[in-house]
Amino acid sequence: YRDANGSGTFNLTGVQLRWNYGENGVGDNDGVDIKVFAIEMVNIPQASYFVGSGGTESGSFTNGSWTSGNTIPLQITSENALSVEQTAGNLWGTSSAGNNTIGSTGTLAAAFPKGFDAFYSMKYEISQQGYVDFLNTIDGTQGTARFPNTTGNRGNITVSGGIYSTTTPYVAANYLTWADVAGYLDWAALRPLTELEYEKVCRGTLTPVVDEYVWGTTTLANSAYTLSNADAIDEGIATNYNSGGNAIYDVTDGSISGPLRVGIFAANGSNTGRETSGASFYGVMELGGNLKERFVSVGLANGRTFDGTHGDGLLDSAGDADASTWPGTNADGIGERGGDWFENSVRLRISDRTDGALVTTGRFSYYGGRGGRIAP
User: What values do phi and psi take at 130, rounded to 5?
Assistant: First the structure.
């Protein structure tokens, strides 16, 4: 990372890698292949922020003083333990049952990442090439376990002779189960983000706007897109790029029938900023639409035990993440936020928790993922 604020191309020379290879069972005379992969991250600085927009989104977070009607945004001002209960000044939700539940009364421990302290978020969803790189650097048994083995709806990861590849490397990786996403994050020494951190990344430090989308307004594109240079590194929106609120969901998807290239809206020649690019407050892309993402849920008991532990680069022999405090392969503790190419626009709202506590191990064409890391 830069040692001072700057902009433009980031060029590095003379980079060195220190590796205690004995820790991984490698001997002095062993031959090894070393590969380096870059994942673009966005720094989310330490700051207070709000959860809940003041609207009526399904299951939305709210100040515990809420009783009915529009929610009351709650400001998160520290990483101290946070009570989950329906009393003023505490975190609560508008639903206490079902897939959008806030869960039972209790406490989020100080170790549970609440989004106040600085952290990093992946700028883009996991791309198909990024996921292929992951599959090709773990062993055969692990790779088989983490291989989606499903194509269609612009998902094109295949395997031949034990080597994984894709014909759409820049398109977001779909058909990922929670176990797949967790495996990737563990391998990359990242960690899951929590749904509180999701709202921080989206809204930043701004005062909430009722029923707002990720880009901070209620404006949303509502005509079907067509693509130029489909599947290429410069895949773009050919028609119906909107003057505000660009995102792919069931209306704008048209005949595309799947996710788009990561960062597609920001690269458009008509882009003028956050609203046209569909970007979050901090410039994180596709947090609304494209693919549904998985976050540690406040509404599930197994989510509340998460302590922000990072992956260690290694999976267990079965190909699963081995971070003990993460929700397991059964996805109990993981919910969904942000909507996707297949669903309606309501799901794209920052504070919508329609499936914020939905537990599923399913493999669907609208499931992707991203992760983060605590900032040093």
Answer: -60, -40
